[in-house]
Amino acid sequence: MKDFNLRKKIFQIIKILIGLLLLFLSFRSIDWGLFAKALFSASPIFISLAVLSVTLSLGLKLWRWHLLLENFKVKIPFSRLVTSYFLGQAANILLVLRAGELVRIGWAHQAKEQDLVEITGSIAIEKYLDLLMFVLSMLVVSTALPEIVQDYIGTYQTMAIVASLGFVFAVLLGPWVWKKLFAGRVWKGWMGKIADRLDLFINASNWLRHPEKVGLLIIWSTIIWIVMGMTNWLLFNSLKLSLGWQAAGLVLIFVYIGVLPALMPGNIGPFTYFAQLALLPFAVELSSAVAFAVLLYVIVNLPPLLIAGVMMLAPKYKNNVSSKLLI
After folding, report:
1. Which among 201, 295, 297, 305 is placed 20 to 30 Å from 36, CA to CA?
2. At what angle do helices 268-277 and 2-27 cross, to 10 degrees?
3. If we measure between CA atoms, which residue out of 86, 66, 40, 23 comes closest to residue 302?
4. Alpha-carbon span 313 to 86, nearest angstrom
5. CB 254 within 8 A of CB 279
6. How is residue 171 annotated by DSSP?
């Protein structure tokens, strides 16, 4: 156990060092004068619109999670839903591990309800939908990119498509496999409790076989990713960068890849490095690309942190947060 904990700590240190290296690489070659000029000349109007776009995307994501929970027939008070979501967002931003989903599950779970598996399943499907949008974004954007960039993202396309096929296989054949091999067997002790919960979860997941419900979530996810791309486009305009949807989409793809491993608290190194890297194929001057990456990092991460902070400071939520932490 001690060896495992030591290896875990070493692994975390290596991840943080990689994140710091990416942060160093992001800023090492820029002209600080041009960088400051780009930041201070950014249009306040377009930055404000970009912030509104980020807020809108957060609201759409929250509502998508609400729809997922409804499909699983899980009823959570809206105030609890909002708190769970934004505390999870804040944890993902601030912690080294991507523990935000655990925070969201723990806060959303209601002690008197057997909803833990369904809440976990709703978040897993949410992540799959974003993975699907990631794949579609790569397919759309890659047609307008230089060949070297297409080669770079081709590996991620293959991995994401394989994961998508695995999910479809689980949805279509999972209930049949469970019924044939596991359902109806007599389980004892904690194995029986797990089997009962999985049986209820599989029955609650039958909505995944309804194309209209799945299609609505795919449409909702498409709108979310379009809004996120619009955020990038608005920020381009704030910095007077003449870039279109290809660049906005590539920023989405690269940032998604960069922050996925959660290399360091705040992910500032991976975020800024991959965001500015996405603009280099479009011949954007490095200082302007880094200025874009820094502004994007701030406007993407600040709203959920502020909302979570306000909730934790509010008396009705502060007591609840404290009690959760004590538990």
Report:
1. 305
2. 40
3. 86
4. 13
5. no
6. H
Burial of 21 (0-12, 13-18, 19+ CB in 10 A): middle
Rounded CA gap, 153 and 139, in Å?
Answer: 10
> Token pair of 188, please?
């004892």
The structure tokens 């009690």 sit at 323
Assign residue 113 a region: left if phi > 0, alpha if psi is -120 to 50, beta otherwise? beta
Sign, CA torsion 171/177/179/184 = negative
Going by the DSSP 8-state scheme, the letter that residue 98 receives in this structure is: -
CB 288 within 8 A of CB 266: no
Closest Cα to residue 247, out of 282, 271, 222, 283?
Answer: 282
Return the structure tokens found at 37. 């000029």
Q: At what angle do helices 44-71 and 211-238 cross, to 10 degrees?
A: 170
Number of alpha carbons in the 13 Å side-chain half-sphere of residue 137: 31
Q: Judging by beta carbons within 10 Å of its beta carbon (0-12, 13-18, 19+), is residue 305 exposed, middle or buried? A: middle
> What whole-number distance in Å separates Cα of residue 236 and Cα of residue 43?
10
For 62, counting Cβ atoms within 10 Å of its Cβ (0-12 exposed, 13-18 middle, 19+ buried), the class is middle
pLDDT digits (tens, 9 = 90+) for 205-235: 677 777 888 889 999 999 999 999 999 999 9
Structure tokens at 127: 């992540």
Alpha helices in the chain (DSSP H): 2-27, 32-40, 44-71, 78-94, 100-108, 116-142, 147-181, 189-204, 211-238, 245-259, 268-277, 286-313, 315-326
* Residues 6+ away with beta carbon under 8 Å from 168: none
pLDDT in tens, 174-192: 555 555 555 555 555 555 5
